[in-house]
Design brief:
heterodimer; A: alpha+beta; Aldehyde Oxidoreductase, domain 4; 3 domains; seven-stranded mixed β-sheet; globular; B: 5 helices; 5 strands
Chain lengths: 743, 164
């Protein structure tokens, strides 16, 4: 795969007096998130994303008026990243937040930071911005020292000015020049001491919330361009169907309809008003014949299908040797296909001008999307611009990229007319790529002294990333007359993990052997869903830890601590247990469960205790209480961390208790919220607590996905503690829980 | 022509009478708050208040709403001068992506207008139709309770002012 890089200098030329940027010579591919691990840059190790872009050239601009613009290649997905980046930049530049404009992912303006995924935005982008800002501030101080004939140590900075002890002051605007900051980033920055910081680690409200609660233009769905028309696509009822015949004539004459766009199997309608477009879409759906697609597997055979579909097996870990004597226990855990299910279905706006096709999208990766769309339309990459605009909550690879491609195809058919494509709820449910069904089998030896002697684990999984880059990743590209082929998935094993994410226990075990049985066939479309393989792997691992603890006759928290030497891991485990009141007994009908994981074994630590209440007669179970303890490294925005963990717990609770994509051989049957139920307020816990461990001056650790796996396991462990029977097949439906009582 | 009364202003609109209220609010009146979530009345992202009741604007044809009082989030206050429901959501930082929040606020508004002292169980039951996918539920519940407090305080304040 080649990566086309933007010509940043040209784009930014003339837009400001000073560019402090990090050049893009090292391909931005390094942050392909879940697929690829970090690339090693040559030379000294630079912090965060600077490591991949080691030359000064892209993150910060200060104009002659002293206003700063900070550029991030990451996107706001509802996780609050804009706020945290602004806090970091304001402190290290010694500016007020309102003096800074933050520009997020835009192929014409920002660095290529790949996808906003893998809980990497703080680790990579915030770290890069922090150091770039600190180095920029130092250069401004040095310039001021030169002009004032003072030493740098005598100067301080505040709110965009360098201040001398004698009262003289120079604003950043006065100090900047075209060349001042045009230098390479250094490996070490003089970060501002904690006492001087006003924003990092201090309470700071989200910058996007006021517009969102007052009806401001906050989402791609709200974007309105002059002369914009409304488009709807017509997709086949099953994936892979081809368009046999369509009678478009009657639809073309419906009120307000401007055009029916057909290209191969791609079909869409464009109208003046949104309602006209919807009615035309419905009419067109009735006038189209699709050729029977491939059939899906039977959902009842999933385990057998998974085991029969292994294309290759990769060794994830082979640590230690020997086969200690002891009791051997084994168990198998499974998860179904589950969907992202953003509340707002995907949407995009595009306009095809002769010089530039511009697409506004809530994609996680404007650069890979641009590459894919350019390839799909056979356009040179510099004729496509992709700009991120926030959409409804993003929990991985949903329909955003596909909607962007749809808008691009339709816009090409209607030059100069802005086109807004809005997917329907049914389209989002049926067409988005799901988190893949998986199976995990674990087998461990419990020695006579109550320790784990060996651990063997195998996970059966598809890839968890079929994201764009190649055009064939886009639904529209596969449908066009000149169709792109769906890329063949490949197994890649790296420290971040994919299907094998968190497959290796962090616990101290003398012998660990972990395999990934890679499944190439993808009868249901799959890709990245928050946590990737970690959701099943942590569920399996942490459920089995409880099974082993029970076999050893040891309290589950004590059993975990017995196998944990990492002090930060021990601290979150201990803290969650204390705050929950783990030692206390619960009333009958209630149970408690514990789980722990360090996300990716590289990012945030998260320990979680959950309490459930079950009605034996009906199998109705409700998580009544959850207490989490988290270590995310240095805290920039405490409430942001809490919000992410709390949201992750509630979302994972919904996956774990209710969610499973329903399908049969004829197609997807989960077409709306009644056929794919999720958590509603009636079943929300009474309380969710998140305790965050302060780690000043430690590196940022990604938090956004850390609670997904532990939540599933903690709930499963709690249910087992009430019913005495272990559920190993997600989700924990009412029927399964009732049946657990009967066995 | 359809006559529509939204946030205290009357509009004469030339729209197809079967158009769901949601599209008229968003596209004809430029009110962004109510959101398209499903078009099926299943998620509540489009919730607005009509004559004091929470209504799913994505499935109600505009002709059925004519001459009735519609309130959207824009009618609760502005960015510069947010109303109690909006203040509560800001103060509790009750959003992740925020896409469902306008619908949440309007459903809660309908409840608190009718039952200012609604307790937690009542709030949970009342909010049942609205879906959130980011898992902001705990904060949404907190914000609704805070909004109730703020509204009661406002009522008390205006009662005091009218006495003096």
């Amino acid at each position: 795969m080649t990566q086309h890089l933007p010509t940043r200098r040209r784009v930014l030329a003339g837009t400001g007096a000073l560019l402090v940027c990090f050049s893009l010579t090292r391909a931005g591919l390094a942050q392909l998130g879940e697929v690829q691990g970090a690339k090693e840059a040559a030379g000294p190790k630079l912090p965060g994303a600077l490591g991949e872009k080691p030359m000064l050239d892209a993150w910060i601009r200060i104009d002659a008026n002293g206003a700063a613009t900070v550029f991030t290649g990451k996107a706001e997905l509802g996780q609050g990243i804009k706020t945290a980046l602004l806090q970091v930049a304001a402190d290290e530049l010694a500016l007020l937040p309102q003096q800074i404009t933050l520009v997020t992912a835009d192929t014409a303006r920002t660095a290529n930071e790949g996808y906003t995924s893998g809980s990497l935005s703080m680790q990579n982008s915030a770290t890069a911005i922090r150091h770039a800002a600190a180095q920029a501030r130092q250069l401004l101080i040095a310039e001021a020292a030169r002009r004032l004939s003072l030493s740098e140590g005598e100067l301080r900075t505040d709110a965009g000015e360098v201040l001398a002890p004698d009262g003289r002051r120079l604003s950043y605007g006065e100090l900047v020049s075209d060349t001042l900051l045009h230098v390479s980033a250094k490996a070490v920055s003089a970060l501002r001491p904690a006492a001087e910081r006003r924003y990092i680690g201090h309470a700071f409200q989200r910058v996007d919330i006021p517009a969102k609660v007052t009806g401001g233009e906050a989402y791609i769905q709200d974007r309105k361009l002059p002369g914009m028309l409304h488009a709807r696509v017509v997709r086949p009822p099953q994936p892979g169907a081809s368009l046999d015949d369509v009678d478009a004539a009657t639809v073309e004459h419906m009120p307000g309809v401007e055009k029916v766009v057909r290209d191969g199997d791609f079909l869409a309608v464009v109208a003046n008003s949104e309602w006209q477009a919807i009615k035309a879409m419905r009419a067109l759906s009735a006038k189209v014949r699709w050729i029977a697609p491939q059939s899906l597997p039977s959902p009842n055979d999933l385990t057998r299908v998974l085991e029969a579909s292994v294309a290759q097996t990769g060794v994830v870990a082979d640590i230690g040797t020997g086969s200690p004597a002891g009791r051997v226990l084994e168990a198998t855990y499974t998860r179904p296909y589950q969907m992202h299910g953003s509340i707002g279905p995907s949407c995009a706006v595009a306009v095809a001008e002769p010089e530039m096709l511009t697409i506004w999208s809530h994609t996680q990766g404007v650069f890979p999307d641009r590459t894919a769309i350019a390839e799909m339309l056979d356009l040179p990459i510099e004729k496509v611009r992709c700009i991120h605009v926030e959409g409804s909550g993003c929990y991985g690879h949903n329909g955003a990229d596909d909607a962007a491609a749809d808008a691009a195809v339709i816009a090409r058919a209607m030059p100069r007319v802005p086109i807004r494509v809005q997917w329907t709820r049914e389209q989002e449910h049926v067409s988005e790529p799901y988190g893949p069904a998986m199976q995990g089998k674990v087998r461990a030896t419990l020695t006579d002294d109550g320790r784990i002697g060996s651990w063997e684990y195998a996970v059966w999984s598809n890839t968890h990333s079929t994201r764009p880059g190649p055009a064939g990743a886009l639904l529209a590209a596969r449908q066009l007359a000149k169709a792109a082929r769906e890329p063949e998935p490949k197994q890649e094993i790296n420290p971040s993990g994919n299907g094998d994410r968190n497959a290796v226990p962090l616990y101290d075990i003398p012998r660990k052997h972990v395999l990934w049985h890679f499944i190439k066939d993808m009868p249901l479309r799959v890709s990245a869903l928050r946590g990737l393989g970690a959701y099943l792997n942590v569920f399996a691992l942490e459920s089995f830890m409880d099974e082993l603890a029970q076999a050893a006759g040891v309290d589950p928290v004590q059993f975990r601590l017995r196998h944990l030497s990492d002090p930060r891991a021990r601290e979150v485990v201990t803290l969650a247990a204390e705050q929950f009141g783990w030692a206390n007994d619960l009333p009958s009908g209630r149970g408690k469960g514990f789980a722990f994981a360090r996300y990716k074994n590289l990012a945030a630590y998260c320990a979680l205790a959950a309490e459930v209440e079950i009605e034996p007669a009906t199998g109705y179970a409700r998580v009544t209480r959850a207490v989490a303890a988290v270590d995310s490294g240095e805290i920039v925005n405490l409430d942001g961390i809490r919000n992410q963990i709390e949201g992750g717990i509630i979302q994972s609770l919904s996956w774990t208790m209710y969610e499973s994509v329903d399908f049969d051989r004829g197609g997807i049957r989960s077409t709306d919220w009644s056929s794919y139920p999720i958590l509603r307020f009636g079943a929300v816990p009474d309380t969710v607590e998140v305790h965050v461990v302060a780690r000043p001056s430690q590196p940022f650790l990604g938090t956004g996905e850390a609670s997904q796996g532990p939540t599933a396991a903690a709930i499963g462990n709690a249910i087992a503690s009430v019913t005495g029977h272990r559920l190993r097949d997600l989700p924990f439906t009412r029927d399964k829980i009732r049946a657990a009582y009967e066995t | 022509m359809v006559t529509l009364k939204v946030n205290g202003t009357t509009h004469e609109l030339d729209v197809e009478p079967d158009t769901p209220l949601l599209y008229v609010l968003r596209n004809n009146l430029g009110l962004n708050a109510a959101k398209f979530g499903c078009g099926l009345g299943q998620c509540g992202a489009c919730t607005v208040v009509v004559d004091g009741k929470a209504v799913l604007s994505c499935v109600v044809p505009v002709m059925l709403i004519a001459n009735r009082a519609v309130t959207t989030v824009e009618g609760l206050g502005t960015m510069q001068n947010p109303g109690p429901m909006q203040r509560a959501f800001i103060e509790e930082q009750s959003a992740q992506c925020g896409y469902c929040i306008a619908g949440m606020m309007m459903r809660a508004q309908a409840l608190l207008q009718a039952r200012p002292d609604a307790d937690d169980a009542e709030i949970r039951a009342h909010m049942e139709p609205n879906l959130c996918r980011c898992g902001t539920h705990m904060r949404i519940l907190k914000a609704v309770r805070r909004a109730a407090d703020l509204m009661r305080a406002e009522v008390k304040q205006s009662a005091l002012e009218s006495k003096s």
